[in-house]
Each structure stands twice: as structure tokens, then as C-alpha cells.
Sequence to fold (251 residues):
Amino acid sequence: MPPILQRLYGKNQSESVLESPDMSIGKCNSPRLFLASNSPRRRELLALGGWEYNLLSAQVDETPLPDEDGIDYVQRLAKSKVYSAASQVGVDGVIIAADTSVINRPAGGRARIFGKPRDHDEAAEMLRKLRGYTHQVHTAISILKKQDGTLLSDLCTTNVPMRNYDNEEIEAYVASGDPMDKAGAYAIQHAGFHPVEKLEGCFANVMGLPLCHLTRSLIKIGIHTHEDVPQACQAKLGYDCPVYSEILKIK
Fold:
């Protein structure tokens, strides 16, 4: 276990994991880990933790319920995904699922959930409404330990200040096709569009998988890693995260 996690979660825990004969650097021991997601961003982020995992599909209806708020929405979908995928794994499986949504709350207006755009016109509309304002991104994580039915849930929220990009930039970005599989119609990590002014929260959350929240949840069910997850995440994303230590302190 890396020093940061050893300090926060205890020496004895790390020693028991390090001495396990089934462990090797960058790999988790049994039970088997599964990611129920079609998102390439989530796959990329999960790989940073050094956990070995297999992919599952999880087909759920992502239509918001009447008057459902953003947090309830992502929590419901994350749980639906993890249970939808459960039939595909054996009793030794641990399944991870997540759902991310952008919540636009204009001044004096009603909050609106921005999922993936249906077409280019809707993508452009979302980007115009987000332009120049701060919105919230919620990601809910659900982890199901199939052996005993343990379900862990966590939630990460990040305030995202968008820059005042112009209409030509919107048109060019939408024409690239990049927004079409992303909640809110943007990728925070897109170097060409660069939609965000300055972030002060979890960058990985805005991409779809808050790794420190995931790490602390997996530790609760005995799944550890030899990777320094915060360091690996920051190095990959080129972002000096100001919140990771506070997140990992919450047990």
C-alpha cells in the first residue's frame, strides 16, 4: 500500500495485504473485479489504480424520473447498473458501476439534468447554456460484493466553472463529434476546446470516475492496490488536485 493510503488506513491493513501470496505489484487479489461500463474514460481511469478488472455491459433506461434531482438520478442509475450486471459474474465477483450527470442551475431558474446529447443541435444548446457559468457534476459510484450482497455507494460533486467560449468554438467542437457520448456535451480534458476556466475539485469526477472515492470504498471491502492512486491520477491528468487527501481521510 502506498504511503498516503498506509497513513490514512493503517499499517496493519497494508502489511496483511503485502504479505498475501496472491498479490503482485499493481494487481488486486481475489475477489475478481468487474467494471460495468461502456465508457472509455472510466476504463482509462480505473486502470490508473493498478486493479485488474474485466468489463461488463449494463443496459439501463437513463430517462430521469419526474421531478428527480441530479443526485437522486445518478445514485439510482449507478445502483441500477450494478444490479443489471450482477447476473453476468460468479459469486466471487465485485462489480463497480458509476453514473455521471451535469446539473445546470441557471440563476433564478430550475435545475436541469444534462445527460448525453441526442444530436448535434442539443449538444450545441447544452454548451451555450453552460457557457460562462459554474455548474455541478455529480458522479455516483455503486460497488456490489456478490458473495454476501454488500452494496457500497459513494458520491462526488465538483463545481465546474466554464469559460466564455464563443459560438464558433462551439460549432467546431460539436462538429468534431467529441461531445456526443458525454454528459453535458463536453470533455473537461479536451485540449482543443478546453472548456473549463479553473477547477478546484476532483478532475477525475468530471471525467466520470472519482478515483479517490472509489479507492476508499474498495478498501472497505478488502480490495487494495500498490499504486499511489492520487499521484497516478494527477500525473495522467496533469492536474494538481487540492482535495484528494481530504477525500481519502473519510473512511
Summary: The CA atoms of residues 71 and 138 lie 7 Å apart. Strands lie at 32-36, 54-56, 93-104, 112-114, 134-145, 150-161. Confidence is low (pLDDT under 50) at residues 11-29.
